[in-house]
Structures are given as structure tokens and as C-alpha cells.
Design goal:
Distance between the termini: 57 Å
Radius of gyration: 20 Å
Strand order of the largest sheet: 10-11-9-8-12-13-14
Shape: globular
Strand content: 15-25%
Largest sheet: 7 strands, parallel
Number of helices: 16
Order of helices and strands: EEEHEHEHEHHEEHEHHHHHEEHEEHEHHH
Number of strands: 14
């Protein structure tokens, strides 16, 4: 098997971190400003809007999580500059949001709709400001950097039986290759550990990390029970069952394969920033459009997403590489799937060979190759809720 590459072309930021994209992010601090942010982003090439639907009417813990996620997204190295769009009376302070993002030493501007005189004037000023930020971003050039600079998020959704026996193990190999090169992988989705958590506990670097992992799984189950739900009786989903997965444990055993074989360094709360290198787990739900933003907020510059049945999901800040272990799905959904790992089941490639191919695709996308989700403009986005609206 050929030797894996150890570098890609990325954008070096003021903090020394490296991005794989060069976005100007338009971030609304509240749902009331989301449409205005979208109007600005749609008219200035080089901008991407984050369609935040929260920011007000939230209990404190919920609001803190929303703020942490938005700040993390703004600080992500894929973002060259930020325009915060606020309404002016929301619970999540747009001024504090801009101030916290600016700690990443990138240009951050702010527009308040109520102060500037309404939506039309906000859009007019936003277009001028966004144009200047794009001009700043355009001066950044890619440079050769080591793979150790890369943080990858790993997701799975729309799973079938091929996910656990082909796509996830191959992505696990790719994750191990990245970590061997000095890079970082984050995987998430706490409900998809249930029934297989004991496997990952054995790979924890110490007892504290093992304890944290067990605690987040138990906490998730208790939260469901308090709502009168039993995860072990409601999963897998109807789509999973139709795809050949029969039990929650079977689904979880397949899902943990995407974490490869590297030691587990730590367990992160939702949208917490990664503080080191290696393999990390982040406590999120299993809903793709809420778990992906959390990993990107935590520092992931690229997402690898396995799907047996197929999904078009993308993200506004990070490119999403789709991998399927089902050759039939690949043939049916070539417009959405980047890598066919079904060759493992077909018998033409080994798990290791496909893992290396996925790893090389990751570096190619990190260097600027567009994913199918990017080409089609998919920017799905959501933030998990902690409590009810107030």
C-alpha cells in the first residue's frame, strides 16, 4: 500500500491555526436577524450565512450553549472574517458575541438592525461591510502545511448495514492515519454509543476520561427517561431497520468503528474547543444538523460523513465529505456522495485501501477540492436545545 501524504494547502490564520476554507461568515445573534444575514450573504460572493434560529427566549444554560456554538463557529480557522448581525434587544448580546469572536484576532464587524434603522438599511450597510471583509479575505493565500494542522469531525447518518461493516471502519482507518500524522479527529453522537460504550472506555488514556465517557452516556439516557422515553426501545430508526440494522447495540457497534483504533484523549461538552491533538469524543445528540455544527464550533475544519442510505446534508462553514459503504446508494446518489466504500463489500478493495483513499480525499478537499455538498450549496444548520423556550 502506498505511503500516505503528510501535507495539504491551507490558510494560515493570525493565531497560527490553519483553515481549509476562506469564508466571510455572516452570523445573526438571534433568529430575528437571520433573514437579514441571509440577504447579505446571498449578494456578496465569498460570504456564508449561519442561519441561527435561537438567541432569545432561552433558559440560561440553553443560551450559553447557543453563544458558545456561535462563538466557536466564528473562531473556526475556516473563517477569515466575521460580520455579526443583531436585532438589538435579544438575550444573546450581539456585542458580546462579536467581542468573543474577535479574540481570534480576525476582523469582526457588527450591524444592529434596530440601531441602523431597519432591515433595508441593515442590508445596505451589510453589503458594504461584507464587501470590505471579502476583500481582506481575498488577500489570504494557501500555503503548504502539515497534516498535523488538520482537525476532522466524523459523523454518520442515514445508516444501513454497510455503514458498520465498510464505510465506518474505512473512515476509522483514515482517522488513524490523520492522527498518526499528528492531526486530530472528533467524533460525536452520544446515543450512538449506547450498548458499545464499553469498547471505547478501554481506549481512554486514563480513568478520568473513561469515567467522563460513561457519565455522558448515562446522562443522555437519564434525560430521555425523564421525558418518558427509552432509547433502547426506540432505536434503531425505521430507516436503519429497513437498511438491515436490527438492534441499537448493532447500530452502536457499527458506529464506533468510525473512531478507528487511536487512544481516546478526552470527552468534550457540546461545542467545546479541542485543546490538544489525537482522538476526542464530543457529547451531542444524533441529529446530524445539530452535531456537525458542534464539532465545527469545537475546531473541526472538515467533516467526514458516512451514510449507507444516502443524505445530502452539508454545513455552512466546513466542507462535508460523504462516504457510503453501499455501492447501490453510490450509483443512485452520485450527485451527493464523494467516496464509494462499497468496494470493500464488492471485494475489489480492502478496508485499509479504502481508508487510505478516504484520507487522501480529505487532504484534497482540505487543499480546495469542492465536495458534492458544497457544489450543490447545502448549508444545513442547527444547535441542540438544553431546555424549553421561555
Amino acid at each position: 500500500m502506498r505511503k500516505p501524504k503528510k501535507s495539504f494547502l491551507g490558510y494560515r490564520r493570525e493565531t497560527g491555526e490553519v483553515g481549509v476554507r476562506n469564508h466571510v461568515a455572516i452570523i445573526p445573534s438571534v433568529s430575528c436577524a437571520a433573514s437579514t444575514a441571509g440577504m447579505i450573504a446571498s449578494r456578496v460572493k465569498g460570504c456564508t450565512a449561519i442561519f441561527n434560529q435561537l438567541g432569545c427566549g432561552q433558559v440560561d444554560l440553553d443560551l450559553e450553549q447557543t453563544a458558545r456554538t456561535l462563538v466557536g463557529l466564528g473562531r473556526n480557522p475556516n473563517v477569515a472574517a466575521v460580520l455579526v448581525v443583531g436585532l438589538g434587544c435579544e438575550a444573546l448580546s450581539p456585542w458580546k458575541l462579536a467581542e468573543d469572536i474577535a479574540q481570534s484576532r480576525k476582523p469582526v464587524e457588527i450591524i444592529i438592525i434596530q440601531e441602523i434603522g431597519g432591515t433595508v438599511r441593515a442590508v445596505e450597510e451589510g453589503l458594504r461591510t461584507a464587501g470590505k471583509l471579502v476583500e481582506f479575505a481575498s488577500k489570504r493565500k494557501r500555503e503548504t502545511v502539515g497534516a498535523k494542522e488538520l482537525v476532522m469531525g466524523i459523523e454518520c447518518g442515514g445508516s444501513d448495514a454497510t455503514s458498520g461493516i465498510a464505510a465506518n471502519p474505512a473512515v476509522g482507518v483514515a482517522s488513524d492515519l490523520l492522527i498518526e500524522a499528528g492531526g486530530t479527529s472528533i467524533f460525536s453522537e452520544t446515543p450512538e454509543l449506547i450498548g458499545a460504550e464499553h469498547i471505547l472506555v478501554k481506549r481512554a488514556v486514563d480513568g478520568d476520561v473513561a469515567k467522563k465517557l460513561l457519565e455522558v452516556v448515562a446522562r443522555f439516557e437519564e434525560k430521555l427517561k425523564s421525558a418518558g422515553l427509552n432509547m433502547r426501545g426506540t432505536q434503531p430508526s425505521p430507516g436503519n431497520i429497513e437498511g438491515g440494522i436490527t438492534t441499537l447495540e448493532e447500530k452502536s457497534l457499527g458506529c464506533v468503528h468510525k473512531a478507528g483504533s487511536s487512544p481516546l484523549q478526552d470527552v468534550l461538552e457540546y461545542a467545546d474547543a479541542v485543546a490538544g491533538r489525537g482522538l476526542y469524543f464530543m457529547d451531542t445528540g444524533g441529529y446530524d444538523i445539530e452535531s456537525i455544527p458542534a464539532m465545527v464550533a469545537g475546531g473541526a475544519e472538515i467533516i467526514v460523513f458516512t451514510t449507507g442510505r444516502g443524505t445530502p446534508t452539508g454545513a455552512p462553514i466546513a466542507p462535508v465529505v460523504k462516504v457510503t459503504g453501499n455501492s447501490r446508494t453510490y450509483r443512485k446518489m452520485k450527485d451527493n456522495i464523494d467516496v464509494n466504500a462499497g468496494t470493500i463489500i464488492d471485494g475489489s478493495e480492502s478496508i485499509e485501501e479504502v481508508g487510505l483513499r478516504i484520507y487522501e480525499e480529505i487532504l484534497a478537499v482540505a487543499s480546495g477540492k469542492q465536495t458534492k455538498a458544497e457544489t450543490l450549496g447545502f448549508i444545513e444548520f442547527g444547535i441542540s436545545r438544553v431546555g424549553p423556550s421561555t
